[in-house]
Each structure stands twice: as structure tokens, then as C-alpha cells.
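Usage

Read records sequentially. Each one opens with the input sequence:
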Amino acid sequence: MDRSPAFPTPADSRGSRREAPSGVPVTAFRGAVTAADAYHATRAAVRIEGEVLRVGNRFVKADRYREIAFVAVGNAASSQALAIVDALGERVTQGFVSGPDPVPNQVPFRSARVPKGYPGRPSGVEAAHTLLELAQGLGERDLLLALLSPGALSSLAVPDPTRTPPDTTGWFDRMAAGGATPREAALAAAVAFGGGVDGGLAASAGLAEVESIVIDRGDGGDIVGGSPTRRLDPIGRATGERLAGGPRGGPLSTPLPATVGRPVVVASPADGLRGAADVIGEKRYRPVLAELSYPDPPVAAAKRFTDRLDSLVKESAGAMRAASSSGVVAFATGTMGLLEGLDERPAVRSFLTAARSGLVHRGAVVGAFATSGAEEENDPPGGVAEAGPDGPGAPRPRGVSMHPGITDVGCLIVAVVPRPTG
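and closes with the structure output:
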């Protein structure tokens, strides 16, 4: 099985042309991950063309910098790091990669494994100290590339004894139980933690130029990793302080220098949805958008999605009766109500259980998949379930594999309602 970040789809599932409704969500999942592949998105954003270096939205002379360094953190860190090494080659002088997955052999720089989970754990704190030390060693005429993807928060946030609650897991759980969205929880983390969050990474780079290339899962590209290269705006800071119980005595953030560029989002839920819709179009299904991104927990997201699906099917009734139609496929993405960097698989299973009971159309199927992927074959990142009540006699959802570390643009949600027969 090919495990290169440049080839996301498991070898045993490429090229499938299954036309059955249960195969359509799988095809859509492959299309979404391929279209939002962090390697290709980052490779397109950072490249050298002749004597010109493109970095996000900027074009500069390739010999402008004395040193080019990068830090790649998050669920797609390996893919983004490989893209920079392939794009810039020996021009890259330093690098550090931190995330839950192994680093490809082609990336000859330091790395750390930080498993999925809440920020503040020893492995993440150690990684944060390492990458901040790298940034502090840069100076004028140097460039730091911050390659950020969901899950970066765990490798950037360092507990601050004057601000961070001692029971961080319970703190985040209580926020979620109180209705805080994943974005709001990330804002609270940026206020309550220190280290690289709330502009801390960019501030550590001193006079070096800083450019951020970001993979967004739906919380907003400005908050991925706890906003390490931008200071929180007044609204975001107020939200974070409200959830954190105030600034906790921390100093007000000083402005960042003009050498820090704005984050450039190169892959997002919209890219995944576009890729999913493109690949099912050839199967004569009508693709319709239910919602760009649901921030809700799995059961609430399932209710919103299936209610919206019923409306979309009614609106498409005329088109579905056409002989050339295979039916309707509804798409959405979601964060399952989870803070970035947490394992989404239990929430995906909860979503499928709730959603299958809400499907009211004969022959309908629903799929939900974490685009961050998963390595374990017995605990895949998503699956497909048939319509019907859940219970002892209900068929189990069919699991679908995907290599980890390719991207993370949230959880893809797909429902297929086939054309009525007879």
C-alpha cells in the first residue's frame, strides 16, 4: 500500500466505478481528500519560477533571504513539510515537523510525534519549545514558513501558570457541554495558554519575515493552531476571555511587526466539497449542498443534516423523476463539535447512528468521514450506513479507510437518495 502523502487513496480502493448508492459516498470521500490534498495545495502556494519565489500571495526574488526555515504542525504536517522540501530543495536550511503521523524519509529535518488530543500534554509542550527555539534563532533577511493544519494547537500551546486552568481536559469538556463551538474553544485556548498561540510564534521570529500557509477544517483559517501568527482581533479576544473567565492576569498582546504576513488558506471545506461533487457528477446524480460546515456535535449535526436533506429532495423532485437521473446526493462538512486535534472517529460513528435513523427515503444511505484519515484498519476514519432504525438487527456501517496525514478539512458528510423506481 502506497503511504506517500502525495498519494492519499489506499491502493486497493483507487479506480472504483461502483454505481450502487452505497458506493457513492466512498467515491465522494476519495474525491474530497484528493481535491483538498495538503501536499498539492501547499506545493502550489510555495514554489520557485525562474528567479522568482512565490510564497502564498507574495512574489519576491528567490535570493532575497539568507535563510528559509519552516515549522509544520498539525494533522497534515507531513504533507505540508514534504511539499516545502520538494518545492524549495536545498534553499530550506531549517525545519521542524510536529504532528500525529510519521514524517516521510524525504523530509531530512527534526520532528516530533504529538498524538491527537487536547493541548497541554508533555509531548506537545516539548514540541512547542523546540519550534519556538527555531523561530528565535532567525533574524533579519530570514524567512519563516508556518505550515499550519488542524491539530496544530497541540504543538503550539504551552500552559501558563497564571492563566491556564490546571484541569484542561475538564475545562474544554465543560465548555463543549455549555454549548461553545469549536472555534470559540480555540479562542479560549489562545487566551488561556502561552507559547506559540495568539501570535506567539510570529513574535518569537523577531525581525524575520513570517508567512503562514494554512489548511482550514471550518473553524476559520485565522484561528488554526490558536492563531500563532496573528494577534486575536478584539471580538475574538473578548470571546476567548469570556469563556476563559477573563484574561487571568495575562499581559495584553503587543502588535506584531509588519514583517508578519496574513495567513493564506490553501485548502478548506469548500475544496473538499468541490472535489466530492466533481467525482459523483459522472454517475448522473444531482449534487446539492446541504451546508458548508456544521459546528454542532454529532447528534445535533445529524438532525440538521437529515432535516435539510428532506427539503432538498422535495425541491429536486422534478429532476429526480427524469429517466437520466440516478438520484440526489447531498453534501456537507462538519467539525462534530470537537476542538481541533481531537480524534473524530467516535463522533463520526455517533453521527452515522443518529443520521441513519433520520433518513426517510427508501434506499437512502449516509456516509461520514474524517478527512484527516486513520491508520488502523479496524477503526477507520468513516463509513457508510443504510437508512433505518439503529438496533441489534441493524446492519453495521461499512468502514472506509484513508491514509492519515494527507489533509484535514473537517468531516465530509454525504447522503444519497436514489431515484424512485416504479
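Summary fields computed downstream for this record:
- The chain is about 30% helix and 25% strand.
- The radius of gyration is 22 Å.
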